[in-house]
Amino acid sequence: MGTQQSKNILILGLDNSGKTTLLKKISAEDSTVSLPTLGYTEKQLKLKNINIKCIEVGGRQQLRSTWDQFYKNIDQLIWVVDAADHRRMQEVSLEIDIVLTKLIQVKNKVSVLVLANKCDLQLAMTEAEVAQRLALHTFTIDYSIQKCSALRGDGIEDAINWIVQKSAK
Ligand SMILES: Nc1nc2c(ncn2[C@@H]2O[C@H](COP(=O)(O)OP(=O)(O)OP(=O)(O)O)[C@@H](O)[C@H]2O)c(=O)[nH]1
Ligand SMILES: [Mg+2]
């Protein structure tokens, strides 16, 4: 009943993985045009009556050292992977390992959603493949993995449902 909740969600992942596109799709904006994020962007959303502040930090190499400063106040982390970019999967694995290891130290209660994005592309890996390549089972953290296409909208409703469900706890 009526208590106003507000949750903070951090969206991370390599450059070009689709974070800005995802954020636009979730907020029902035109998601077909996006520029690389230089720094970070914040967006206040209302999803099924829950106030949510989303922060996307750009994923370019030189911005990754700034990711740390955002961990303290977050309730959820969404990690976006370009599931069609087989070439960079090793780099993704390395970076998510660093992030989750630090996050676990800073927060003891945070939920992580890994999105295997760009599932519209023919070469896209399945969720199971992505989970395996990132060795997600090795982390002592509450995580889920889902596939989506931030561009076309497939799986976006599921991502929103995940956010809402985790926010209700
Ligand atoms: N085919 C396909 N392309 C996508 C999808 N999501 C994003 N893209 C494209 O991928 C490119 C990068 O998307 P962005 O959303 O800007 O990526 P980003 O993760 O925000 O990148 P940085 O801000 O640099 O970290 C753009 O050309 C998008 O149109 C998707 O689901 N399918
Ligand atoms: Mg971006």
Descriptive tags:
binds magnesium ion, 4 helices, Rossmann fold, binds guanosine-5'-triphosphate, alpha/beta, 169 residues, single chain, 6 strands
Molecular structure report:
This protein starts with 5 loop residues before the first strand and ends with a helix. The mean pLDDT is 94. It is globular, with a radius of gyration of 15 Å. With 169 residues, the protein is of the alpha/beta class. It has helices at 19-26, 89-106, 127-133, 156-167, and strands spanning 6-12, 40-47, 50-57, 76-82, 111-117, 142-147. The protein has four helices and six strands; from the N terminus they run βαβββαβαβα. The chain has a single domain, classed as Rossmann fold, CATH 3.40.50.300. The protein has a six-stranded mixed beta sheet, with helices on both faces. Bound molecules: guanosine-5'-triphosphate (GTP) and magnesium ion (MG).
TL;DR?
The protein is α/β, with parallel strands linked by helices and 169 residues long. Helix content is 27%, strand content 25%.
* Total number of distinct structural domains: 1
Report the principal-axis shape. globular
State the major sheet.
Answer: 6 strands, mixed
CATH homologous superfamily designation = P-loop containing nucleotide triphosphate hydrolases
Binding site for GTP: 13-20, 59, 117-120
Keywords: GTP-binding, Magnesium, Metal-binding, Nucleotide-binding
Binding site for Mg(2+): 20, 37
Family: Belongs to the small GTPase superfamily. Arf family.
